[in-house]
Design a protein that fits this description.
four-stranded antiparallel beta sheet; three-stranded antiparallel beta sheet; alpha+beta
């Protein structure tokens, strides 16, 4: 079964021209070259079809996400709620996390991890799902960023 997704733009871009073909997959979408798109586009398209759009924008060094529609259609955890979930999952005697979200993902809150010896390890952090607050495993992260967004 194919997952239904939407496209999400975390910031305004200079060029949205790849969207001119989106109507092929979502007939209600009408591309307007004068419009600036931000946030969700409110389309419902199979995940695999949207990967091509994501790849085209990423080739142009533009940020976009392919997101399962339940993240768009459901109440998401606030950063404070997600931080509380993250605190419950780490060993506070050996580590601490910073209440600063890293990145602009529409599906996870990502908090940097700092070891108690003061060392900050590049890439170390806790990723909290915005829907249910579970901590993402490395496998979940790889699956989402590769299978949905073509990021290796």
């Amino acid at each position: 079964m194919q997952q239904i997704c939407d496209l999400y733009f975390p910031k305004a871009l200079d060029d949205y021209s790849p969207l001119q073909y989106l109507h092929i997959f979502h007939s209600d979408f009408i591309y307007d070259p004068k419009q600036q798109y931000m946030g969700y586009l409110n389309v419902n398209v199979r995940r695999i079809a949207l990967v091509n759009f994501v790849m085209e924008f990423r080739k142009r060094k533009m940020q976009i996400y392919n997101v399962p529609v339940q993240y768009r259609d459901s109440k998401n955890l606030s950063q404070d709620e997600a931080f509380e979930c993250a605190l419950k999952q780490i060993d506070l005697e050996k580590n601490q996390i910073v209440k600063t979200n890293v990145g602009d993902s529409p599906v996870i809150w990502r908090f940097p991890l700092i070891f108690m010896n003061g060392e900050e390890k590049t890439g170390a952090g806790v990723s909290v799902d915005k829907l249910d607050g579970h901590i993402w495993t490395q496998d979940e992260s790889e699956e989402y960023f590769y299978d949905f967004n073509g990021v290796i």
